[in-house]
TrEMBL record, chain A:
Membrane spanning stretches: 34-55, 125-149, 161-186, 206-223, 257-287, 307-333
Species in which this protein is naturally found: Nostocoides japonicum T1-X7
An annotated GO BP: transmembrane transport
Keyword Cell wall biogenesis/degradation assigned: no
Entries under InterPro entries matching the protein: MetI-like, MetI-like_sf
Protein's name in the database: ABC-type dipeptide/oligopeptide/nickel transport system, permease component
Subcellular location: Cell membrane
Source species, domain of life: Bacteria
Membrane topology: Multi-pass membrane protein
Family, similarity comment: Belongs to the binding-protein-dependent transport system permease family.
Keywords linked to the UniProt accession: Cell membrane, Membrane, Transmembrane, Transmembrane helix, Transport
Residues covered by the ABC transmembrane type-1 domain: 121-326
From TrEMBL, chain B:
Segments crossing the lipid bilayer: none
Gene Ontology cellular component terms for the protein in this record: ATP-binding cassette (ABC) transporter complex; periplasmic space
Listed Gene3D superfamilies: Dipeptide-binding Protein, Domain 1 (3.90.76.10), Dipeptide-binding Protein, Domain 3 (3.10.105.10), Periplasmic binding protein-like II (3.40.190.10)
Solute-binding protein family domain boundaries: 102-435
MF terms in GO: peptide transmembrane transporter activity
Disordered: region residues: 38-76
The protein, known as: Putative peptide ABC transporter,substrate-binding protein
Keywords of this entry: Signal, Transport
Biological process (GO), any one: peptide transport
Length: 343, 526
């Protein structure tokens, strides 16, 4: 979560375009951001490719001490990875395949990578989505309660609990939850995911503990940031003015303060979600959840280069897309920058 | 799912030990140093308590060690879940029974000729594949060729591929096959009973695997799970449960949690340090003796170990009881520097070697090494028992004035493997002849001690051609005496297999061959 410390400033890149119509300006802005996104992904693809195949001899890495013994396997892998071609040609082939949705063939079990990873990608996506749906109201709600009772006892209690939760690694939270609700104390919920051929959510109760663990891991962080922004806003002049005009404190909090405090919250939430989407290996391990993280670890261990490449690109893509959406939302929710673009 | 074939003689060390009795990788990774009070309440010798077993239901078996490399190929299983899968879908000609003795399976009998070169296989009548086709000699020949084709043998078929004569191996009549060998081999039944020798039909397709086992294939997702259903046309005891699922786990703790929460019914290779948490929370433990060993290996052709007195001194330094108590958390049986404890030829009459520091010291000083200092090579990829026992040996050696410094290699099974002067290794349950062939003969693929004794080799060669079991056992006992007196192995113990199952599960008995009653889930009811 350390990478969240530096929040990107969404307003920085927006120079007010002068003398154009609003919609044109918006299209230009979005086009520019999409261009940047594509550029980012392209750079990532170069890095991923270099890191996985172009450095050293991948076959030597795959076969280890069998390299000298098993010539047939060396030949087969050389052909599968096209190692007779130049690195540039291989990169272009791979990129071309990627753009056509062809992710290659897994080395570990000779199945198409797309087919191999699709269910894990979907599983991770659903887990993150459900976590987000739970996380956002919970985190913002706690922040509002906390800000409302600023520096009174409820606030102190909430802040202490949040700090303690933020300090707990997510797998510890997971293990404690399993012991509490599944094995040692109560037997209410399933301890792990046994998906079989279907998806984990076919049995909805399976999702409860993983989602709870992720929410408990991320919510304290989001909550504390939103709370401190809220407090800043509550001290501002316009909120003071609203109060002086006699608007009830509840309405002040909801309408005047929260809307203005929501932007940093969106940025934090987006980065956290992108982090979760990248696969939370510990949580996937504790709950045996068939997501991206466990698959990525497994593929790295098997030196399954095509799968590692595909998953890296997907994770990078999630980061880019989530950040793009967060920036867009931030601008739409900030009147100053909204008008800056379309004026 | 075409898998790369691995040349039998060049297969990797890791693969071999995984094949050869399997499923131990996870257990070797058990935190062996954890103090463990033994399986108090839950340790049962048999799951079949009182009452009759009920039919129906689904049995979900949890297994660690799988990955997206998982396979369902009957002749290329590597990991514990692979072995569990093939053991339920497919059956070899013979079985290893729970006591590690040969029992008939698809073959009613497998008899050698007097010269041990022609073996007559009589097939059981009425055995059918999952698709209804009866098992014929053609299927047996097809399977032999798939496993042991000398051009591309599977790792499991390597030993057979070197001796089988495919030109003369033929169908005799509708229920008889003759397997003909180039060189005499009196214990062919050992090879034919391995789980890697499942009989498959001539039109076998790994995408829709058909065998003769008590369960038939329904679905399989590598790294995740497989689903099998009860085979109603099974020739033996039909399964109690309607469905068998084999679920991969990346972490044994998650597997234990699933067992305690009742989500799975059985799990194999329970780490010793988790035994208490299973038995205290209602799970049952299944403990079985095995012939799996984690020896120290001394190169007999390199000083100082080329002096037999040094080798014997190090064997006398080893406190075997302490090794078992600490490195195996008490879950092991005593070793006497001899392997293959279940072999009928096992030399159990040789006196049990105990720690004897005085004699070790006098042997060392007679050899001119009273202040011996040696390096001991170990590595995490042998399994966690190895570093633990290496650390213990350092302390035990100190008592005899021997300085042992441990060198940890990463990876241990790298380029230097088989050339370490003093190291450790890891072997699974095997009988004497197959084990000696790979590790104690000059040509042996894994002769890590560089043992090369002409008299020993002669005894092994004669025994391989001797079909009379009593005579053969005498020869093998003479061979073991040589190893006992001059060998390069320090074999301090054999580890115990520990598995777990849910409170409601009945019918699972411990087996010396494979975990969880050799994975024969047809005997289990939920």
């Amino acid at each position: 979560m350390a990478d969240v410390a530096v929040l990107p400033e969404p307003l920085e890149e927006v120079a007010p375009p002068k003398g154009r119509h609003g919609s044109v300006a918006w299209i230009l802005w979005i086009a520019r951001r999409l261009g940047l996104a594509v550029l980012t992904l392209w750079l990532v693809s170069v890095l991923v490719f270099i890191a996985t195949t172009a450095l050293g001899d991948p076959i030597r890495a795959i076969l280890g001490k069998d390299y000298n013994a098993d010539k047939a396997r060396v030949a087969q892998l050389t052909e599968q990875l096209n190692l007779n071609e130049s690195a540039v040609k291989r990169y272009l082939d791979w990129l071309g395949g990627l753009l056509h949705g062809d992710l290659g063939t897994s080395i570990a079990n000779q199945r198409p990578v797309g087919q191999l990873i699709s269910s894990n990608v979907l599983n991770s996506f659903v887990l993150v989505l459900i976590s987000a749906v739970v996380l956002i109201p919970v985190a913002f709600g706690i922040a509002m309660i906390s800000a409302n009772y600023r520096r009174k006892r409820p606030d102190t209690v909430i802040q202490t609990i949040l700090l303690a939760l933020a300090g707990l690694p997510e797998f510890v939270t997971g293990i404690l939850l399993v012991a509490l609700f599944s094995t040692t104390v109560f037997h209410w919920l399933p301890a792990v995911t046994i998906a079989g051929a279907g998806h984990p959510w076919d049995q909805p109760s399976v999702m409860v503990l993983p989602v709870a663990t992720l929410v408990l891991a991320v919510a304290p962080y989001v909550s504390r940031i939103v709370r401190s922004t809220l407090l800043e806003v509550l001290d501002s002049d316009y909120v003071e003015l609203a109060r002086l005009k006699g608007i009830p404190e509840k309405v002040v909090l909801r309408k005047h303060a929260l809307l203005n405090a929501v932007v940093p919250g969106i940025q934090v939430v987006s980065l956290q979600l992108a982090w979760l989407a990248g696969g939370v290996v510990f949580v996937e391990t504790v709950f045996n959840y068939p997501g991206i993280g466990a698959l990525l670890v497994d593929s790295v261990r098997n030196h399954d280069i095509p799968v590692v490449q595909a998953l890296s690109m997907i994770i990078a893509g999630v980061y880019v897309v989530v950040n793009l959406i967060a920036d867009l939302l931030s601008i739409l929710l900030t009147p100053r920058s909204r008008t800056a673009i379309s004026s | 799912m075409p898998e790369p074939t691995t040349d039998g003689r060049n297969l990797s060390r890791r693969q071999l030990f995984k094949y050869s009795g399997g499923a131990l990788a996870a257990v070797a990774a058990a935190d062996a140093l954890a103090a463990c009070g033994g399986g108090g309440g839950g340790s049962g010798s048999s799951g079949g308590g009182g009452g009759s077993q009920a039919s129906g239901g689904v049995l979900i078996h949890g297994a660690t060690g799988g990955s997206s490399k998982d396979t369902i190929d009957p002749h290329r299983p590597v990991t514990a879940p692979d072995i569990a899968r093939v053991s339920n879908l497919f059956e070899p000609l013979l079985f290893w029974d729970d006591n590690y003795q040969i029992a008939p399976a698809i073959a009613e009998s497998v008899e050698p000729s007097a010269d041990a070169k022609t073996w007559t296989v009589k097939l059981r009548q009425g055995v059918t594949f999952h698709n209804g086709k009866p098992v014929t000699p053609e299927d047996v020949l097809f399977t032999l060729n798939r496993v042991a084709n000398p051009k591309s043998p599977t790792s499991a078929g390597g030993a057979l591929s070197e001796i089988i004569d495919f030109d003369k191996t033929k169908k005799v009549d509708a229920s008889t096959v003759n397997i003909v060998l180039h060189t005499p081999y009196a214990v062919l039944q050992y090879l034919l009973a391995e789980y890697t020798f499942g009989i498959v039909p001539t039109d076998f397709d790994v995408k829709n695997p058909v065998g003769t086992g008590a369960f038939k294939y329904k679905s399989f997702t590598p790294g995740q799970s497989s689903v099998f259903t009860k085979f109603d046309g099974y020739w033996g005891q039909k399964a109690f449960v309607d469905e068998l699922h084999i679920q991969d786990f990346s972490d044994p703790n998650a597997c234990v949690n699933a067992l305690l929460a009742g989500q799975i019914q059985t799990m194999d290779n329970l780490p010793y340090n988790l035994m208490d948490s299973v038995s205290k929370q209602g799970g049952k433990l299944l403990q079985a003796e095995t012939g799996a060993w984690i020896p120290f290996t001394m190169r007999v052709d390199q000083a100082p170990f080329s002096d037999v007195r040094v080798r014997q001194a190090l064997r006398l330094i080893c406190d075997r009881k302490q090794m078992i108590a600490q490195a195996l958390a008490g879950h092991g049986t005593l070793g006497n520097d001899l392997y293959a404890p279940f072999d009928p030829a096992f030399a159990k009459d040789l006196p049990q070697r105990e720690q004897d520091i005085d004699q070790a010291k006098s042997l060392l000083s007679a050899a001119g090494h009273s202040d011996l200092s040696v390096q001991l090579f170990t590595g995490d990829d042998i399994g966690s028992v190895a570093p633990a026992s290496a650390a213990l040996f350092v302390q035990q050696a100190k008592k005899a004035g021997v300085t042992v410094s441990v060198v940890k290699k990463t990876p241990f099974y790298g380029d230097d493997y088989l050339s370490y002067p003093f190291a450790q290794d890891f072997w699974n349950t095997r009988n004497y002849l197959p084990q000696a062939a790979v590790s104690e003969l000059k040509r042996g693929t894994y002769n890590e001690t560089h043992f090369n004794n002409p008299k020993f080799a002669q005894l092994i060669a004669t025994a391989q051609a001797t079909t009379d079991e009593a005579k053969r056992n005498t020869l093998l006992q003479d061979a073991q005496k040589i190893e006992y007196d001059e060998g390069g192995y320090i074999i301090w113990g054999f580890r115990q297999q520990v598995d777990a199952y849910g409170a409601k599960v009945q019918g699972i008995k411990p087996s010396k061959y494979l975990p969880l009653g050799s994975y024969k889930f047809q005997y289990a009811s939920v």
